[in-house]
Design goal:
This protein has helices at residues 21-36, 61-68, 87-99, 123-136, 191-201, 219-236, 247-256, 259-281, 300-307, 323-332, 336-339, 361-368, 373-382, 397-403, and strands at residues 6-10, 44-48, 51-55, 76-83, 107-114, 142-143, 150-157, 160-164, 168-169, 181-185, 205-212, 239-245, 285-287, 314-315, 385-389. It is α/β, with parallel strands linked by helices and 404 residues long. It folds into two domains: 6-169, VC0802-like (2-Layer Sandwich); 181-389, HUPs (Rossmann fold, 3-Layer(aba) Sandwich), CATH 3.40.50.620. The strands form two sheets. Strands 1, 2, 3, 4, 5, 6, 7, 8 and 9 form a nine-stranded mixed sheet that branches. Strands 14-13-10-11-12-15 form a six-stranded mixed sheet, sandwiched between helices. Helix 3 crosses helix 4 and helix 8 packs across helix 13. The longest helix is centred in the C-terminal third of the chain and has 23 residues, at 259-281. It is found in: Cytoplasm. ATP binds at residues 185-186, 210-211, 267, 289, 298. Residues 62-167 form the THUMP domain.
Length: 404
């Protein structure tokens, strides 16, 4: 009995990675398996050139499709009927695929690709054979090579021939785990989770740091950040979240620094602490949710002054985005409703009405003379609490090596 018993997964940018291609492909298979294995234990995984093939073995493809849509590195995927490389079986599968198509079908097109070159029939000849058979066994249906109602894709591979009629779009990007580690400064706001999403899209392994100032910020504010980190695990697996005790340093800054420079000095301290945590965790960069000119601390002058205190690269994925664009993405990744919960984070405490938009490095150094920087920064680093926010499951390296 013919049935859609496989999912064929395509990936795009990985083809550009040359000698590192194997590593990227292997990581993508591991990420897919990590997401799918807990809920779909009967799936099988096979990596071939340019494709990943999932054997369904009776698993329901509908929830699998929903999960594949959230995995970075996948360009697109299709439900497929797998048959042996025999022309008669290919014909029957092509006809079945057309008949199983949803909606009204008046025209079709065969698009064959012979990836397995020892197969004796060329792609164009295969188009002719399969198209002729479908026409002979259907009524009131014609061929349209330009804009058909249904395109029947056929891929001939060594492991068999895969017949498909639909294609589902993936997130694209690179597999998470292929681009090094980044420490994301995760507030409770709208922007930083979206920045984390875009970092994951470029293959980054993400850890997060949050500055917590009890009793000025309560446990609900902390839980809000945990919930945001949990949302990011939907796209990149587990996230380590570092919770920094920031109360004493923040009060010290408030007491010693003029109000219009408080935000600048506070951000410089946050960056020093983040750099310390980044070094301890082997993160190669720090990232923020800043957008150029959005608030006083996000002007180029402010960024220049704040960045002075670190030699670690500071990434700003949202730098050129409008707030409306960020909100749109936040809603798409399901972080928006959490971000707008009315619990203050440390950046809104003691917020002055007159923060400088063009602070200079000289001004910052002048006022930092009154702050016991080293002692407070070190105490914050040493008092940091780390928790692991897990996705549904993870696959060990040993298990993946056995698979591949």
């Amino acid at each position: 009995m013919l049935t859609f018993d496989h999912i064929l997964i395509r990936y795009g940018e990985l083809a550009l990675k040359g000698k590192n291609r194997h590593m990227f492909e292997k990581q993508l298979v591991q990420n897919i398996r990590s997401v799918l294995k807990p809920s779909f234990p009967r799936l099988t995984y096979h990596r071939t050139f340019g494709r990943i093939l999932l054997g369904l073995n009776g698993e329901d493809p509908v929830p699998i499709k929903d999960k594949l849509r959230k995995i970075f590195g996948i360009h697109s995927f299709s439900l497929a009927i797998r048959v042996t490389n025999e022309l008669d079986k290919m014909k029957q599968a092509a006809l079945h695929a057309l008949q199983a198509s949803e909606g009204e079908v008046r025209t079709f097109k065969i698009n064959a690709r012979r990836a397995y070159k020892p197969f004796p029939i060329s792609s164009s000849e295969l188009n002719h054979h399969l198209g002729g058979f479908v026409l002979a066994n259907t009524e009131q249906i014609s061929v349209d090579v330009h804009s058909p109602d249904v395109e029947i894709k056929v891929e001939v591979r060594e492991s068999g021939t895969y017949i498909m009629t639909g294609e589902f779009k993936g997130l694209g990007g690179l597999p998470v785990g292929t681009s090094g580690k980044v420490l994301l400064m995760l507030s409770g706001g709208i922007d930083s989770p979206v920045a984390g999403y875009y970092l994951l899209k470029r293959g980054v392994t993400l850890e997060a740091i949050h500055f917590h100032s009890p009793p000025f910020t309560n446990e609900k504010a902390k839980q809000k950040v945990v919930d945001l980190a949990a949302k990011l695990t939907n796209f990149g697996g587990q996230v380590k979240l570092h919770i920094v005790p920031f109360t004493e340093l923040q009060k010290h800054i408030h007491e010693k620094v003029p109000s219009n420079m408080e935000m600048t000095i506070m951000r410089r301290m946050m960056l020093r602490i983040s750099e310390g945590i980044a070094k301890k965790t082997d993160a190669l960069a720090i990232a923020t949710g800043e957008s150029l000119g959005q608030v006083a601390s996000q002007t180029l002058h402010s960024m220049n002054t704040i960045n002075e205190v670190t030699t670690t690269p500071v990434l700003r994925p949202l730098l050129t985005m409008d707030k409306e664009e960020v909100i749109t993405v936040a809603k798409e990744i399901d972080t928006f409703n959490i971000s707008i919960l009315p619990y203050e984070d440390c950046c809104t405490i003691f917020l002055p009405p007159d923060s400088k938009t063009k602070p200079t490095r000289q001004q910052a150094k002048k006022f930092e003379q009154f702050v016991e920087t080293e002692a407070y920064v070190q105490a914050a680093i040493e008092g940091t609490e780390t928790m692991v926010i897990k996705s549904e499951a993870a696959v060990s390296k040993t298990e993946m090596d056995e698979l591949l």
